[in-house]
Structures are given as C-alpha cells and as structure tokens.
Amino acid sequence: MLSKSIELTYKDGKTIVVFRVKVVNEKDELIVKSESMADVNGDFTIVMKGQKGSYSAYYLEITDGLNTEKIENITFGDIWIFAGEQEYQTHSIKYDDDYDFSNISFIRYIAGKLVWSEYKESDHIYSLVKSIAVSLKEKVNVPIALVDASLYEGYADAWMSYETATKHKNISKYLTEIERLDEEKTVDKNTNKLSSMYETYFNNLNGYKIKGIIWSQGSADFQKFDESKKNIFISDYVYLLIQLFNDVMDLFENKIDIYCIQESYCDKEYAADLRNAQAIPTYQIKDIHLIPTYDTFELINEENNKEQDEVSTSEEETFEEIYEFSIEKYLNRIIDLIYIGSYSKNSIDISTSFTNFMVDNYQIKISFDSSYILENVEELYGLEIVSSDGKIIPYEFTIDKNNLCITLIFEEDEVI
C-alpha cells in the first residue's frame, strides 16, 4: 500500500489527477500495476498485490502522466509485531563484526509517528526484538520487518481497544480493581495507559499485511496478584487476555497468527499461575499458539559435578545443580515454533515438549524431551478428560523419569 499527499490546484472542480503505479523486477519485467485518483485534498492511496518474500530487488514507478518518480531497491518480506513487556534481563546476542544485517527493518513510534529504521539505526529498539528479527530472518530466509510495540512493565489492557475494555463488565470490573480504568475517555498514544498501545500500533497498522504477532506479557498484571482472591484474579486476567486476542484478530480480519510466549525465568510465587493463565487462551482460540519457555535454562556446573562425583567417597553425598537462563535456547524455541506454525506446511505441532504420545482404552502415556524435569509435578493444571457424552472421567497419574502416565478410572459396569 502506497499513501502520499501532493499539492493540487482545482479549478471549478474539474481537475482530475490519476496516478498509475507499476512494480518492475530486476529484468525490467512488469510484475503488477495499479492506479488511483487523488481526492480534493491532494491525497491518494494505491493498493497493490504483494509479492512473495525474497531478496530480489524491484523498483516502483509512479506517474501522473506528466511527472514520473522512481523508487528503487524494493524488497518484499514479512512484517511481525512484538507486543508486550520489556524484561529486566537483556536478551541481546553478540554477532561478529562482519555479520550481514541487511534486509532487517524495525518500526517504532517516535515523535508522533511510526518510523522505519534499519538494523544499524536500531539503538532505540528493545534487545529481544532485535534478536528475534535476526534469528527469524536466518530461519525463513526472507527480509523481516519487526514492529517494536513493547513497553516497560506494560499492562495487558494497553494493547486492548477502549471499546472492548469498557463494554465488557468483567473486564471493566477487573481494570477498576487493579486501578487501570481511567475515567477520562482519552487515549494517550505510546504510554502505559488503557488502549494506548492498541491505538499506537494495532490500529495504525490495520492497512498492512501483518504475518503475525509475538505476545510476551503478564508480569505487570500479576504484580497486582492477591492470594486471597487468586481464582477470581486469574479468571479475570484470562478473560481479558482472550478478549484482547479476539479484538486484535478481528482488527486484522483473522488473517494472522498470534504466538504467546510463556513466562520463562520468573521466580515469583505467582509464576506457575501466570504460566497457566498465559496458556489458556491458546487452548480456546484458533490461531493462538503457546510458546513454552519455562525450561529454557542450561546446567552450568555439570562438569564440576562430574569431577566431584569421581572423587566422592560417600554414596549419600550430593551436589546442587545450578541452572542459568539461556538466551540461545529461549530464542531457538521462539523461532522454531513460529516457523512450524506460520511457515512449515507439512508439520503437525502437538506440543514442543512431547516426543511421543500413546493412547489405549485406559491409559495415556506422554513421553517428554530429556530437558524437562517432571519429578516435582504434583498436579496437572487444566487437564480435564471428557467422554463423548460429556461426562468427566476421573484419572490418576504417575511419573517415571520423563514419562507421564495417566490412568483413567471407570466404574466396573462402564463400557468404553
């Protein structure tokens, strides 16, 4: 989509200016053309069919019949939006000095408008956004533009439309309780206020063909976590999140994927509840995908433990394992799942954590990747098994190293 304003002089309402645009490839072959007429203010918009993402360079030629303007070195790629909170920890990955950062662009709201910038001009972009852009470009091998719609300690409602936030009683009640509902019906763009980020980014990007949204948020809302009202708080936050995602899907006409990054390294008491809350919308809404990252840690004292084990003379002596958050593992998880969900046409993603899934009449056995630690699992959050007639089937479960075995409990006279 090309939008532009020009100065026009109309006489007796008879002046008509038609603009014609064509896109030409490197071989001077016409790829697509379109035309539009300027309005009385001299504004015009031309919409053209997009091309498949690649590093091939095109040029665009626009003319009003008298004057011609040529725009060169145009490439087609994918636009992604990163929306959510900026974390305390840095997510930057170090690259060699000669690393090729071409064909990576960023979009950020600056001085009252959305500004495009290249990687070398991206000091103002959140470090995680920059790392995702580089990794995604390497994985899919097409130019990438990433919108940095992030906020420091941003609340979820900042990315929700004002209409949705106020017309739903459950949401408005929740926002009132956490002191987020502003009586003034004004929206200040690019701030941590109700609907500010929705108006700054989502609404302004409505005309663009967005490939998908990467969502990473929750800690700010859960800072308001009240243990005495735990269930109500969680259900209200989940309801808000579901309506927020529906809001955005409707805005982009259900033509995008949304990837919800699960809380990774939070050690707060509410961490498990937050992860569960982030997962629920992905079960209920089509094209909302969960990216589990709570296991993106690496054992950093493994070699030291091995040496100590060799010299140990006591069988009862144990050594504490120390884990450290791995940005490489974290990024790989995000990029791999985005690739599976939005770029790979021949894969079925049951879950990133499963390596095998077996079902017989009475038992379900799920095998997990060796990096998952299951010994301390005491409850299966949100797992409800229902028969074809709608009856909830009780179950028991056991854990054997990296295997979760779920046994269904039936009455003696029940028929499966």
List the helices and strands and how they pair.
Blueprint: E1 2-5, E2 18-24, E3 30-37, E4 43-46, E5 54-63, E6 68-76, E7 78-86, E8 104-110, E9 113-118, H1 127-140, E10 144-152, H2 162-167, H3 169-177, H4 196-202, E11 210-216, H5 219-222, H6 230-251, E12 257-261, H7 271-284, E13 288-291, E14 297-299, H8 302-311, E15 323-325, H9 327-342, E16 354-359, E17 363-368, E18 395-400, E19 403-408
Parallel strand pairs: 7-10, 7-11, 8-10, 11-12, 12-13
Antiparallel strand pairs: 1-4, 2-3, 2-5, 5-6, 8-9, 14-15, 16-17, 17-19, 18-19
Helix pairs in contact: 1-9, 6-7
Task: Give an account of the 3D structure.
It is built from 9 helices and 19 strands. It has helices at residues 127-140, 162-167, 169-177, 196-202, 219-222, 230-251, 271-284, 302-311, 327-342, and strands at residues 2-5, 18-24, 30-37, 43-46, 54-63, 68-76, 78-86, 104-110, 113-118, 144-152, 210-216, 257-261, 288-291, 297-299, 323-325, 354-359, 363-368, 395-400, 403-408. 25% of the residues lie in helices and 29% in strands. Helix 7 links the parallel strand 12 and strand 13 (288-291). Strands 9-8-10-7-11-12-13 form a 7-stranded mixed β-sheet, sandwiched between helices. Residues 1-12 and 346-352 have low confidence and may be disordered. With 416 residues, the chain is of the alpha/beta class.
Query: What portion of residues is helical?
Result: 10-25%
Mean pLDDT: 82
Order of helices and strands: EEEEEEEEEHEHHHEHHEHEEHEHEEEE
Computed over alpha carbons, the radius of gyration is: 26 Å
Determine the number of helices (DSSP H or I, runs of at least 4 residues): 9
Quaternary assembly: single chain
> How much of the polypeptide forms β-strand, as a percent range?
25-35%
